[in-house]
């Protein structure tokens, strides 16, 4: 299995490959976040069955969604 998670204050990028060699599947996506996060207080945990990403907001604002709508 091969996984990369990159984040900065306003963006999250995930790229992972999983499954047997002959049937490897890939999930790749990126999000321009609705607000800013505190990267130092955010965590990523790679578990057997999932990737757990906890992002701490940099400002106490209500997000109506994870990503910023494309305009």
Any overview of this molecule?
- With 71 residues, this protein is mainly β.
- 0% of the residues lie in helices and 56% in strands.
- Strand 4 (37-46) and strand 5 (51-57) form a beta hairpin.
- The chain is elongated, with a radius of gyration of 14 Å.
Structure characteristics:
single chain, 71 residues, mainly beta, three-stranded antiparallel β-sheet, two-stranded antiparallel sheet, 5 strands, elongated
Briefly summarize what is shown.
This protein is mostly beta strands and 71 residues long.
Secondary-structure-derived class: mainly beta
C-alpha Rg, in Å? 14 Å
Number of strands: 5
Which assembly state applies to the chains in this document?
Answer: single chain
H/E element sequence: EEEEE
Q: Judging from the principal axes of the Cα atoms, what is the shape?
A: elongated
Average pLDDT taken over every residue? 93
Helix content: under 10%
Q: Low-confidence runs (pLDDT<50, min 5 residues)?
A: none
Beta-strand residue percentage: over 45%
Distance between the termini: 35 Å
- In DSSP terms, counting alpha (H) and pi (I) runs of 4 or more, how many helices? 0
Largest sheet: 3 strands, antiparallel
Sheet with the most strands: spatial strand order: 1-2-3
Describe the SSE topology.
Layout: E1 2-8, E2 11-18, E3 25-32, E4 37-46, E5 51-57
Antiparallel strand pairs: 1-2, 2-3, 4-5
């Amino acid at each position: 299995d091969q996984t990369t998670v990159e984040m900065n204050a306003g963006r999250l990028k995930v790229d992972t490959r999983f499954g047997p060699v002959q049937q490897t599947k890939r999930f790749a996506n990126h999000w321009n976040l609705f607000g800013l996060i505190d990267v130092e207080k955010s965590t990523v945990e790679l578990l057997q069955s999932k990737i757990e990403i906890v992002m701490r907001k940099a400002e106490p604002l209500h997000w109506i969604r994870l990503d910023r709508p494309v305009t």
